[in-house]
Design a protein that fits this description.
- The complex is a heterodimer.
- Chain A is built from six helices and ten strands; from the N terminus they run ααβαβααβββββαβββ.
- The longest helix of chain A has 17 residues, at 14-30.
- Chain A is globular.
- Chain A has helices spanning 3-7, 14-30, 50-59, 70-74, 77-85, 162-171, and strands at residues 35-37, 66-68, 89-90, 98-101, 126-130, 140-143, 151-153, 178-183, 186-190, 195-198.
- Chain A is α/β, with parallel strands linked by helices.
- Chain B is built from nine helices and twelve strands.
- Chain B has helices at residues 3-7, 18-33, 54-63, 81-94, 142-150, 155-168, 197-200, 273-281, 293-296; strands at 39-40, 69-74, 97-98, 107-111, 124-128, 179-181, 185-187, 206-211, 216-220, 226-228, 255-259, 266-270.
- The model of chain B is unreliable at 293-297 (pLDDT under 50).
- The chains are: A alpha/beta, B alpha/beta.
- The interface between A and B is large, with 39 and 42 residues.
- Chain B: This is Alpha-D-ribose 1-methylphosphonate 5-phosphate C-P lyase.
- Chain B: Belongs to the PhnJ family.
- Chain B: It is an enzyme of class 4 (lyase).
- Chain B: Keywords: 4Fe-4S, Iron, Iron-sulfur, Lyase, Metal-binding, S-adenosyl-L-methionine.
Chain lengths: 201, 297
Amino acid sequence: MPDTQIFSGAFAEPVFAAQSVFRTVMDCMARPGTIGTIAATARPPQPLGAAAGAIALTLCDHDTPVWLTPQLAKSKLPGWLSFHAGAAVTAEKQDARFAFVEKGAVVPGFGLFAQGTQEYPDRSATLVIEIESLEGGRPLVLTGPGIRDEAMVGPQGLPDTFVALAGANRAMFPRGVDLILVAGDRILCLPRTTVINNREA
Amino acid sequence: MTTAASELATYNFAYLDEQTKRMIRRAILKAIAIPGYQVPFASREMPMPYGWGTGGVQVTAAILGPEDVLKVIDQGADDTTNAVSIRAFFQKVADVAVTTKTREATIIQTRHRIPEERLTTGQTLVYQVPIPEPLRFLEPRETETRKMHALEEYGLMHVKLYEDIARNGHIATTYAYPVKVEGRYVMDPSPTPKFDNPKMHMSEALQLFGAGREKRIYAVPPFTEVVSLDFEDHPFEVQSFDKPCALCGAENVYLDEVVLDDRGGRMFVCSDTDHCEDRRDHGHCGTMLAYNKGAAQ
């Protein structure tokens, strides 16, 4: 009985679902502040949401160690990732290429994950963080590549220190981690190039 | 499954296997996050030789979906060998819709030109890149060029441009003209004529670069600063042409020289064939457009 959660819930049409999820992530990564919708459905074990599960199936495989929060690591998710994506879970944040944080969990410091090196800044982690909502929170102003002048977002459910964390991440450029924020079936990407500030009152 | 899908039984959609696509897709995401930086990737053998656009083909195959409309150009033209064969390849392995019209395309794979028509949001330009490393002819060792990028040590490139001026009185580099992306990485825009460099700056379209033999992917996101390197007293300039296109009369476009006979006869025509045809369809005439004059009137 417990195995049904592990062996089911992958894409019905893996080739086309992965393509559509990737294009949404690519477009959002290229245009930070733009909210995209994950159309394909995956059903990962609780408490990870459907959209984050779809991103995992699209991008993770045996080449990408995955870090999970303690709650996710205790769930059926490691087995599900292993069966459907062939991805191994690592306890070492430094080794992870992807990290998943479910809604409400503590967001670890970005600096604990692989930042890449000055020669190979691409060897860094991508963090997939589920939050309450992508709108309605404290307004943040985004500037940087992919944004015409500036973009305004208001994600709800990020730690209070988020702007400082993101600022420290930006200061490391070209090293640093890239973020994918997920709420429901919608995503918002914040690559390391994006400058994030609180809106001045 | 649809009939189209069942006819494609021999290969996976868009030729590449899913693990390869994931690997390329991860490289593309990191490339977008670090504009101008060359991400190494595990380039595959493709059913065409290196040098025929295998990098661009792999990037296109990794992003292409059934909803896309693909345009392929080779030196601006839709009807040259490389463009025709790559277009046919994707029709065969992905059953994707194709077009020659720039504004209808969602993905444009290009060899050495950027279309004259301004690209818009929702379009992706995929470049075929022979040598992605702008410093390669100045420093052959990969270990060294990588260090130079890491330390943002680009003095050598300025020396090269200065030597151009010392020898020729002006910067003689006319294609693959180096650019600086977002004030950080010096990047090779692939061997496009420098005429096209200004189109990369703050482009609305996403630009992806694939180098198959050299196994590198890099990217310029939309609305990103792309500045051609120059000097205060020798500012960057694009090529200008004395005459308009002989077929459509267009000015301020990039022209190809066509030799007509062995007595020095020649004409200059638009390198972007779609742009030229579109203008002729709208009644524009150049000096050597004979057959169409009656129809246009």
